[in-house]
Amino acid sequence: MIPTDPVEIMYHCPEEEIAFGPSCWLWDYLRRSRASGFLLPLSGGADSSSVAAIVGCMCQLVIKDIDKGDEQVKADAARIGQYRDGEFPTDSRELAKRLFYTVYMGTENSSEDTRSRAKRLAEEIGSFHFDVPIDSVVSAFLSLFERLTGKRPHYKVDGGSHTENLGLQNIQARIRMVLAFMMASLMPWVHSKSGFYLVLGSSNVDEGLRGYLTKYDCSSADINPIGSVSKQDLRAFLRWAAVNLQYSSLAEVEAAPPTAELEPIRTDYSQLDEVDMGMTYEELSIYGRLRKIFRCGPVSMFQNLCHRWCGRLSPSEVADKVKHFFKYYAINRHKMTVLTPSYHAESYSPEDNRFDLRQFLYNSTWPYQFRKIDQLVQDIDKDGKWVEDRRADSQLRQHGAARPAQGGGMGVVAAGSANPSVGL
């Protein structure tokens, strides 16, 4: 036998992995489930726009394989798209029009920026797009609540309490979930098509870890292609997709500050995700990797970050950040048990049922661990070494130099920790 020519190994960059992996997963799920397509609540933000771009990439890959002569893909596409008389798709945008519904569900709190971004992205991909105002549905729920209780809640910017503010945000989010599933089940009937559509979720891994999502909102769906991808990686993907998938509107999506748009916009107030969470997405990504990959609990994470953030934050500031994260991680852990099934290709996923078998009921005060962190802060302050390290680090920065790494990457040996992978 004559040996075949050697195959050159091709390594995809992370952005390509996010584009191609979930795209193939979505197509495989679509053809195996016998569904007729996907429906996505498209807010114009980074997460839902990433999912939309992945579906668009799926359509592009299908057309490429058909052009290459893949008869199986051609037959699947003709069946799913319900083509007749031997016809088959030849254009990705035309295929998307048949397979993909996108729905912008705006309220009085939504901005024209997100509405226009959603519309432009839908046009670039080719999806069948709807712009559905849901204020009347929100108002109906609030009127019903007022008749039942005699009280009407108000947003915090209008003098309402934290409880009122949260309740008003959650009802908007949950209405969107109900409407999404209703449209997914009935739109094929409206357009005289057979079958059903699968609802796509768009919550990223960081929101799941922090619990920064409404239980049973648009994070609840049939499947979620970005459920194990961090916000930082998604932003890099958006920049890549704007050029390589030719969805230019994604550049504007990536540049916009993340916001849920669930509170009223005022001249002196605009809701921002990172302000609401009390931490940045960059910090949250670090917490997630330390917690999952290196098995860090509160104490070992504090020790590791003392080393990592030396010269930028004091031990007490690091302690406050670690405590804040683990407090909300514990409080919201129950949300992990109902996460939408997701595509998994990362090692930092917080998904309970498949990849992370830790308990989901924690004591949110972490009494032993937080006391240990306080003790370590006192020991470091008493030792004085931190002040010397911080001064030395500041001098290095002034001269354009960097502190030499003692371990490299996320696995550095932290202050007072023999092994960052050992969690307490």
Automatic annotation (TrEMBL):
What is the reaction catalyzed?
deamido-NAD(+) + L-glutamine + ATP + H2O = L-glutamate + AMP + diphosphate + NAD(+) + H(+)
Entry's EC annotation: 6.3.5.1
What keywords tag this UniProt record? ATP-binding, Ligase, NAD, Nucleotide-binding
Record's keyword annotation contains Acetylation: no
Instruction: Give every NAD/GMP synthase domain span.
Output: 25-285
Q: In which pathway does it act?
A: Cofactor biosynthesis; NAD(+) biosynthesis; NAD(+) from deamido-NAD(+) (L-Gln route): step 1/1
**Which Pfam families is this protein grouped with?**
NAD_synthase
GO terms under biological process:
NAD+ biosynthetic process
Broadest EC class assigned to this enzyme: ligase
Q: Which InterPro entries match?
A: Gln-dep_NAD_synthase (IPR014445), NAD/GMP_synthase (IPR022310), NAD_synthase (IPR003694), Rossmann-like_a/b/a_fold (IPR014729)
Query: Per the UniProt record, which residue ranges are transmembrane?
Result: none
Region of interest called Disordered, as start-end residue ranges on this chain: 391-413
GO CC annotation, single: cytoplasm
Annotated Gene Ontology MF terms? ATP binding; glutaminase activity; NAD+ synthase (glutamine-hydrolyzing) activity
Annotated family: In the C-terminal section; belongs to the NAD synthetase family.
Q: Can you say what this protein is called?
A: Glutamine-dependent NAD(+) synthetase
List the top taxonomic levels of the source.
Eukaryota, Viridiplantae, Streptophyta, Embryophyta, Tracheophyta
